Amino acid sequence: MAGLGRALRAMTDLTQVIGFVAGFGTTFAALPDLIAMLKRRSSVGMNPGMAAITGNFQILWVIYGALIGSMNVVMWNVIAVVTNCLTVGAYMYFRRQEARM
Asked: What spatial distance separates the first Cα and last Cα of the chain, rounded to whole Å?
């Protein structure tokens, strides 16, 4: 029985590591677009529709994570929502600047 307990604990630890790495990767997948937009100082290439869809589903992931009690799901998706909001804010700012030209 002790061997089974250790195996289950190891699987749980591995599950947490996989969840952490997966959350990190998907959370910051959109960061290169934000950085590129800030460097270019232009909204060119940004799709606000995709950002809106992604943001809505990220919020659902936060709610889901809270319901199942998964700190990994909540934490990474809260960060993703903030990143998405920054991206949309930058898009709106640069779009306004480009409209004035």
From this structure: 72
